Amino acid sequence: MLKVLIVDDEIKVCRLIQCLVDWEALGLELIGFAQDGLTALDYVKQYSPDIVITDIRMPNYDGLDLIKNSLEINKNIHFIIISGYSQFDYAQKAIKFGVDDYLLKPVKKKELLQTLQKLITKHQALKDNLSEKEEMKKQLTFTEKKLKRNFLSELLEKSTITADSSNPDEINKHYHCNFVRGNIQLLMIQPVIKGSNTDSRVYEFVLSKIRDTVAEDLSLFSEVISIVRSDYVYCLINGTNEEFSRLRKQLKKFRTTILELKDVIGDFRLFIALSSEKTDLSGINDCKREVRIANLNKLISGADLLEYTNIKPAAVRSEQIVDGKFRKEFLFNIETLNHIQQKILFDKLKSDIKSVGNLTGQLVFDVYKDLIDLFKFSIRTYGIIIKNENLLETLMYDFFMYCSVDEVFDTLLQRIDESLDTWTAEKKLENSKPIRLAKQFINENYNQALTLEIIGDKIGFNPTYFSSVFKKETGMNFVDYITEIRVQNAKQILVDTDKSIIDISTQVGFNDIKYFTKKFKKSTGLSPTEYRKLYS
């Protein structure tokens, strides 16, 4: 039997969890309670529990410490964390440690039983020493749920199925499904998590919760299959007209359940895109196209339930917004690195888009793609080197995480400006390298007879060009720069030695004592003699 330890600083919570489950019937042995992390850790060391159900926040030694230190003792312990609201920072860290599930207080019997049964299955797989791939293969081969998910995954990827798509009996025979004669509909569900909580493990946790919860909350349908693909959950439903009449009520329940995860991961949005209803699976390609179009409309409506049937074509096309005049101004602003004018142009673009009749998310996407293509063209045309090789790919990926028209184009402009700023800074640094070499040579040889020709030859510039670039980079002409270097060195020698003024003049590169005195006084406001008396 698997051994279970319950940890909570409130004994009544421990007793409640004990009463929720028939432990022996599940093949589990409840080995005891602990009311703090240190006591629980002693249990782990002494009794080696297989499953630990623990609160997160406890006095002195909290659940996070317990999880971390217990896994160092036995990496195969399964953890179920329980927590009240307003503890999402702790819960999120626990998820990243690799806990198996998170349950909100008050703990519900059904959720606890489902989690325990899942862990029993998982533990059995580990006990049988099956690799993850072998376990996946086994599940796909023998578990009906896995077979159905595989079916939907292939359907979405290949858009074709072997069986007669209009005959539910044929589909059920081939894919072990439960389709009935009625309608089908595809849902695409997207969580959008902003800020610092976008860790991939947090997304995986949320997506798996969505996949399992939507299948449960829509279980009234004859068939429900849900899978995770990329950053979305796709859910295929089939049923009678009576079942479909209850869809929106069930989706409202589902959305409420999922949004409770805000207490774990912080604020996020949940968008549910619905295709139109189809009579059979031969319409799956249209369903895929429709949910993607519907999902884009989150940029326009601000709604969380996005139905394709409510979308009408936009009154204009993208090329009417990103027209010849816009392209010319955009490219000119890139060429001249004029961020201010580019922002003015983008502000007008947003205003033009928002004024479009029947504005759709698809039109916003088309305009966005046109701007990306225009930026690509400007990069090639003006020889701009973008340090981030994945920038353009990232820009396209990030589009689908935006929730408003302003966010789309403000972020795009910011990314373009940042990439141009990085390029110009690196280009400036590259161009200034010869001048840095020239300055280094001057500082090492200031007491020699130096000319534009000598320095230019050292760095590979002709004298005239070197003189121009040197003044642009330093703000001083060549002669004034050398004179200043010589004066600065003379000041140090005056203070540190008893050498005569004429010897110092010659040592730093001046051949005329009067000229040296004149330049020294111009730089410091003092003659060499006065300077020595004042500072030595």
UniProtKB/TrEMBL annotation:
<feature type="domain" description="Response regulatory">
    <location>
        <begin position="3"/>
        <end position="120"/>
    </location>
</feature>
<dbReference type="InterPro" id="IPR001789">
    <property type="entry name" value="Sig_transdc_resp-reg_receiver"/>
</dbReference>
<comment type="function">
    <text>May play the central regulatory role in sporulation. It may be an element of the effector pathway responsible for the activation of sporulation genes in response to nutritional stress. Spo0A may act in concert with spo0H (a sigma factor) to control the expression of some genes that are critical to the sporulation process.</text>
</comment>
<dbReference type="GO" id="GO:0000160">
    <property type="term" value="P:phosphorelay signal transduction system"/>
</dbReference>
<keyword id="KW-0902">Two-component regulatory system</keyword>
<protein>
    <recommendedName>
        <fullName>Stage 0 sporulation protein A homolog</fullName>
    </recommendedName>
</protein>
<dbReference type="GO" id="GO:0005737">
    <property type="term" value="C:cytoplasm"/>
</dbReference>
<dbReference type="GO" id="GO:0043565">
    <property type="term" value="F:sequence-specific DNA binding"/>
</dbReference>
<keyword id="KW-0963">Cytoplasm</keyword>
<keyword id="KW-0238">DNA-binding</keyword>
<dbReference type="InterPro" id="IPR009057">
    <property type="entry name" value="Homeodomain-like_sf"/>
</dbReference>
<feature type="domain" description="HTH araC/xylS-type">
    <location>
        <begin position="436"/>
        <end position="534"/>
    </location>
</feature>
<dbReference type="InterPro" id="IPR018060">
    <property type="entry name" value="HTH_AraC"/>
</dbReference>
<dbReference type="InterPro" id="IPR011006">
    <property type="entry name" value="CheY-like_superfamily"/>
</dbReference>
<keyword id="KW-0804">Transcription</keyword>
<feature type="coiled-coil region">
    <location>
        <begin position="109"/>
        <end position="146"/>
    </location>
</feature>
<feature type="modified residue" description="4-aspartylphosphate">
    <location>
        <position position="55"/>
    </location>
</feature>
<dbReference type="InterPro" id="IPR051552">
    <property type="entry name" value="HptR"/>
</dbReference>
<dbReference type="Pfam" id="PF12833">
    <property type="entry name" value="HTH_18"/>
</dbReference>
<dbReference type="GO" id="GO:0003700">
    <property type="term" value="F:DNA-binding transcription factor activity"/>
</dbReference>
<keyword id="KW-0805">Transcription regulation</keyword>
<dbReference type="InterPro" id="IPR020449">
    <property type="entry name" value="Tscrpt_reg_AraC-type_HTH"/>
</dbReference>
<keyword id="KW-0175">Coiled coil</keyword>
<keyword id="KW-0597">Phosphoprotein</keyword>
<dbReference type="InterPro" id="IPR018062">
    <property type="entry name" value="HTH_AraC-typ_CS"/>
</dbReference>
<dbReference type="Pfam" id="PF00072">
    <property type="entry name" value="Response_reg"/>
</dbReference>
